Structures are given as structure tokens and as C-alpha cells.
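Lab channel / #folding
Pinned by the channel admin:
"Please post every new chain as: sequence first, then the C-alpha cells as a reply. Keep commentary short and put observations after the output so the thread stays searchable."

First post following the new format, from NK:
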Amino acid sequence: MRSDHAACLCLVKAIVILMRGRKYYWEKTVLIDCPEALRWLRQARYTLGSARVDAEAGFYAWACFKAHQAAEFALKGLLRGAGVESFGHDLLKLWRRSRELCKVLEAVYECVVLLNKMYIPPRYPDAWSGDAVPFESYTRRDADEAIGCAERIVSEVEDCVKPLCSTGG
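Reply from TO:
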């Protein structure tokens, strides 16, 4: 992003953005606070990287939780940048609000559903029955799937936000 656009506030109304051969529709009048949206997206990317490191080290439960967090940060970045309430950790709720702003997010529904299950169980033994504990209940496959879904969500949100923030409107 060019520095002269660092404080960009872009007003968007019913436009079509063409990127990578795909159309992104913004069907509402939306005020985009680019610095705020991009700040959350930077945190999403950082957290996604941390999830990858945890997966490589065998910390699969933490990788799954961090994948949830990365997706949450990306969705909240879009919402906060648009001035829309973004409290809580329910990815489905955040996704429903986000897809009103960026229709292409319809395509990540299954990833949102998968990651929405990765908030409490990867961290708390009392989320499991019997003697099960989170760190024994997640596998490399679980971590890879969660990270792949988080990557897809973060990338889709970036594709929605970055063209608006890099062009100055």
C-alpha cells in the first residue's frame, strides 16, 4: 500500500471489483476505514503464521485454535473497517455480517462452519468427555484442514478489502 493512502477512507456503493478474473460485489454504501481493516488483516496473517509453526511442532490443538483466531481477525477486520459491529467469537455470526459486504465470502461457508468448532474445544479439557484432553484429541490432519480453511478466509477477505484500500477509492 502506498503511504499516501495510509489514511484512506473509501466510499463504495454498488460497485464491481474485478480481480483474478472474479467479481466482488459491494451492494451497500460502505465507508471503509482502510487502516483499521488492514491492521486486523495483518494480525490475521501473523496468527496464521503462528498456527503453521504450531502445526509443524506438533501442537495441533493450538494450531486449530489459532486458525479460528486468524479467520476471526480477518472477518472482524472487514467489519470494523466498514464500521459494523464485530463483537464475539462466533464465526458464523461474523461471516453472515461480512458476506453482506462482500458476496464472494459465500464460498467459504464450509470453512467457517469447520473453524467455528475450533474456539473452545482445542483449549479446554472440560469440553471433552471422559479423560480426553485437547492436545491428545487433534491430529496433523485436523490442523492442516483448519489452517487451509483459515488461509482461504483470510485471502478472500484480503481480496475484498485491499483493492479498495490500495486505489484510494
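NK: The radius of gyration is 17 Å.
TO: also worth noting, The domain at 3-166 is CATH 1.20.120.330 (Four Helix Bundle (Hemerythrin (Met), subunit A)).
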